[in-house]
Amino acid sequence: xxxxxxxxxxxxxTSCGVVKKKTTYSKTPKVTVPASNDxxxxxxxxxxxxxxxxxxxxxxxxxxxxxxxxVRYKYGGTTRKGMDxxxxxxxxxxxxxxxxxxxxxxxxxxxxxxxxxxxxxxxLLFFRTLRRGKRINHVGLVVAVEGDDIKFIHASSSRGxxxxxxxxxxxxYAFIKATRIL
Length: 182
What we know:
This protein is an alpha+beta fold. The protein is 27% helix and 22% strand.
């Protein structure tokens, strides 16, 4: 009798282990969703004709600029291997057939000057970052305006292409003017 209990105990212990779930890849998973009274069937032709949301020119340029996020800084650069602040905007606007001068100083002469409280997405912000410098040497593109916080994308010499806030002390102090190109 003792041997029988020992065998049953041993079987019980070994059968309590982890059981691997059998996975079937050949069957298509079934998803159940409560049915609605309105059934819409899309054919292939209809699927292709569904329009994507229409983006403004500013949104398109911003999206292009954002694709360069993380690219390292390179003075005079205009490629994914490296770019500077004016190179970033030169390329982003250029891909949408808007010609801008190549340098931030000359970009500052383009467009219409606007007050900071009227800044919107797609506007350019200009900075003087050198203490002894007398002219503009940095530019950024406004990507969002959230209340009194203005976010802009630019190529920082220390961090590459990033989005910063005009509220940050350094950028707020170095800010010179804003212009509207679009």
